Amino acid sequence: KTKPWYQKNSSRVWGRNLAIFSIVIGVLLTAYFLLAPWLAEKLASTVEIKTEEKFGAAVYDAMGLTAHENPEASAVLNEFFRAMQVKTDYHIRITVVQEDIVNAFALPGGNIVVYSGLLNRLKTYPELAALLSHEFIHVNNRHSIKSVFRQLGSRVFLGLLFGDAGMVSSVLIGQADQFKSLKYSRSLEKEADLNGLALLRERKIDPEGFAALFT
């Protein structure tokens, strides 16, 4: 039996509206997943230092680095950095991990980790000053938290948006190992190098320490 004309038109309108609704939802979801990383990075700049320190402490504990720390070497590096008299709102804590790994990294909130495998390869004080200055800039300019928030994107965006620090901490703890090999953008690495170099020059420390460190 042939449907009346008004039923045919109703079916067409319903189908068209469903298609439009699906397209709108698709566009909104796409926009969300594309914008969430950028928005998360921007929101990272609004996180209070005390909250950032809690994030960093949670990640540090999750890594289990304390069991492999060299307390004596850590004490020396912390004293060395204090002697550089670098002004900052962060409480900088340097941990030397006794492992033959050539690496160092910064965590949100002030923790800097240096592996003994890298430390043992340094030959001069300017090289050590260059290393600590570089990692300090990553902390002080919030490179770590901005970069990891951008990479985690939507997983931290809603937590930041609604001020749910517990949710954000849980996500960061789940990605703790990512901080060991966190990839910064070229512009952030350049910023860490140039600002770190400025710290050395202000303290009349041989800037060639940076060249030797990279070598």
Structure description:
A hairpin with a 4-residue loop joins strand 2 and strand 3. Strands 1-3-2 form a three-stranded mixed β-sheet, sandwiched between helices. The radius of gyration is 24 Å and the shape is elongated. 65% of the residues lie in helices and 6% in strands. The chain is mainly α. The chain has helices spanning 5-44, 49-63, 71-83, 116-119, 125-140, 143-152, 154-161, 165-174, 186-202, 208-214; strands at residues 93-97, 104-106, 111-115.
The spatial strand order of the largest sheet comes to: 1-3-2
Spell out the helices and strands N to C. Answer: HHHEEEHHHHHHH
Could you report the average pLDDT, rounded to the nearest whole number? 80
Overall morphology: elongated
The SS-based structural class is: mainly alpha
Indicate the proportion of strand residues: 5-15%
Number of strands: 3
What is the terminal-to-terminal distance? 85 Å
Largest sheet: 3 strands, mixed
Helical proportion, percent range: 55-70%
Helix run count: 10
Radius of gyration: 24 Å
Poorly predicted runs of 5 or more residues: none
List the SSEs and their pairings:
Blueprint: H1 5-44, H2 49-63, H3 71-83, E1 93-97, E2 104-106, E3 111-115, H4 116-119, H5 125-140, H6 143-152, H7 154-161, H8 165-174, H9 186-202, H10 208-214
Parallel strand pairs: 1-3
Antiparallel strand pairs: 2-3
